[in-house]
Structures are given as structure tokens and as C-alpha cells.
Design brief:
Pnp Oxidase, Chain A, 165 residues, 12 strands, mainly beta
């Protein structure tokens, strides 16, 4: 009988899957934070609902609970630096993750990345804790799109830009 897969085995296998990179933004002022996710997907079109999985140990998780709203900005081909900051490269944390990019404040107060292929302003409909993560279901309150922005994906341990041309 084979041993059960370890967390490391699982993470290594998941690197073989291509994931669209998105930034979840939450909080305000010096208490703003956010993170990169590849787990953000559509849940329902009517009503418009999104789903993302967020590690409960992340700095963003308590802010999601506190604020009850978030921004979800898919990342375009030109947004690798944004992905790196929101992934914590170089030790970047909290509000400093927003530096070097343009943001707009949406209806709920959440920030959306200007130039994102698609960006959604959401209120939290439900949070479901499972193991290390929370399944965050967001009700879409506003949408912004930028045609021709391409996409940023995560595959095989790194970010890859996809352009429309």
C-alpha cells in the first residue's frame, strides 16, 4: 500500500495546473492588504457570485472577516510586478503591496486594479472554513473590464504572461 500524499507532494502536483492570477484586495489605509490567488472562479451568473480560497493564516483573512467586502482584480500580461508584490516577494507586506500600480476605489470601498482584464467589487456572501483555507463567496456589486489586457497565469512554479496577439 502506498503512503498518503504529503502536503508537499500535493503542492508540487498542483504546479502542473495552469491558474489565472488574480489579486484579492481588502482593508483600507495602513491596514490594507491583499494576496494573489489562482483559485478565484465564477460561481453563479444570476446572481453574480465569485468564489476564492484564502489561507486563514494570511494577513488578509482577518481583514476579510472585519470588512465584509473585497476587490478581485484578474491580472493582465503587464501585471507581473503586481503579482510579485502581492505574493510577498522581497518581504513586501500590507499597504506597501499597492505601490507601483494604479487603483480605483469601488462602491464598497475596496480597491480595483486599473487596467485589469476584469475586476469585481464584492461583498462577502459567505465564508466556509475548510482545513487551512476559507472558501470566500462574494456577491458582485460592480464590474470593470479592460479589453486587450491579456492574462497572467501561474504554471510550473512561475508567472507567465499571455497576450491577446
Amino acid at each position: 500500500m502506498q503512503d498518503a500524499p504529503t502536503g508537499k507532494d500535493f503542492r508540487n502536483a498542483m504546479r502542473a495546473l495552469v491558474g489565472n492570477c488574480s489579486v484579492i484586495t481588502v482593508g483600507e489605509g495602513e491596514r490594507a492588504s491583499g494576496l494573489v490567488v489562482t483559485s478565484a472562479i465564477s460561481l453563479s451568473a444570476d446572481p453574480p457570485l465569485l468564489l476564492a480560497c484564502v489561507n486563514r493564516e494570511s494577513s488578509s483573512y482577518p481583514l476579510l472577516v472585519e470588512h465584509g467586502c473585497f476587490g478581485w482584480s484578474s491580472l493582465g500580461a503587464a501585471h507581473q510586478a503586481v503579482a510579485e508584490r502581492f505574493s510577498g516577494f522581497g518581504g513586501v507586506k500590507g499597504a506597501a503591496r499597492y505601490e507601483g500600480a494604479e487603483w480605483e476605489t469601488a462602491e464598497t470601498g475596496a480597491r480595483l486594479l486599473k487596467g485589469a482584464p476584469a475586476a469585481f467589487d464584492c461583498t462577502i456572501e459567505e465564508m466556509i472554513d475548510r482545513a487551512t483555507h476559507a472558501i470566500v463567496i462574494g456577491r458582485v456589486r460592480a464590474i470593470r473590464t479592460t479589453p486587450g489586457a491579456g492574462a497572467l497565469v501561474y504554471w510550473n512554479g512561475g508567472f507567465r504572461a499571455l497576450s491577446d496577439s
